[in-house]
Amino acid sequence: MAAEKQSFDAVIVGAGPAGVTCAVWMARLGFKPALVDAAAGVGGLCRFNPYVDDWNPSLPGATGEQLADNLALSLGEAGVTPWLSRTVTEARVAPVGVSVVLAHGPSTVMGRFLVLATGVRPRSLPGLNGPLPAVLVGPGRHILAQDFRGLRVAVLGGGDNAFGAALYAMERGAARVRVYARNVRAQRQLVAQVPAQQVVRGDYVVDPHRRRVDAEAFDLIMVFYGWEPCIGFARALGLRCCARGFIETDPATAQTSTRGVYAIGEVTRRQHPCVVTAMADGITAAKAMQARIEAGR
Ligand SMILES: Cc1cc2nc3c(=O)[nH]c(=O)nc-3n(C[C@H](O)[C@H](O)[C@H](O)COP(=O)(O)OP(=O)(O)OC[C@H]3O[C@@H](n4cnc5c(N)ncnc54)[C@H](O)[C@@H]3O)c2cc1C
Predict the structure, then answer these.
(1) pLDDT recorded at residue 106
(2) pLDDT at res. 5
(3) Residue 161: which domain range?
(4) Which atom of ligand 1 is nearest to the CA of 232?
(5) Which CATH number does the domain housing residue 107 bear?
């Protein structure tokens, strides 16, 4: 792929539901988008969701993985070829438009507009920079692939994912499951299914290397500490973010505090992050860019 100094109407970083939808709409509106993703496939977090997505009324019975396949199909039909396995390491506002730097090249891509659609990654334990054996971080296929039979399992976190995973491990033959929650935020019906004596509320001390929580030994630790936005590469843009680090946008246009830069999907401060709201954001940004291009601004 020869990406040296190519120029596009919009450079869209992230090929999850938000970025793909934005690219498809841009292409169908007659513009030239570049869609870049660090991953080897299209779909973002959906690629790691092997479960049926009951929250998308337009695709009953489809799993997240099937949804990811559909997103790739839609891109193909709109004539957009995504640039995969290309991590964006830097984004800047250029004298005219914006520029992003891609790793493994190196190459620079120019655009009239920049769209940040880089989503989130699961928060890990503080100080833990890489994977550790028998420490699983965040939900997804790796939980499905885990054999829980006979294991002593500690689940860290107080949200839906933590309680859902605890129930999952119990149903699949774990010898002991204990949930450690500094505060419990999960839906009541989930919490009610985990026996109260298996839930430790309040502060606790974790030693992930020795797999101990409050000095008690476990075979497996699962961490569900929520999510953090993937925006390290965009620091130079000086975007206004909320206290939790998510990008602030104008809901009517998806425009950020930096002119020419849009942000869509879970990387933004979202009341209800999900596939459908991410896709809606993608459309909002595409239409806002169309309006600006056609008005010559
Ligand atoms: C296990 C699981 C189950 C879920 N179940 C549901 C469900 O049932 N229903 C539902 O609606 N939602 C569900 N979700 C949430 C849903 O997947 C997300 O809301 C949605 O994927 C967010 O879309 P997005 O496009 O904003 O970001 P993402 O899907 O996270 O895509 C972001 C993309 O940006 C790329 N990226 C990040 N940084 C860079 C960089 N520097 N350079 C290049 N590319 C980069 C990533 O590789 C990724 O592909 C689930 C998520 C998980 C993990």
Answers:
(1) 63
(2) 63
(3) 135-223
(4) 41
(5) 3.50.50.60
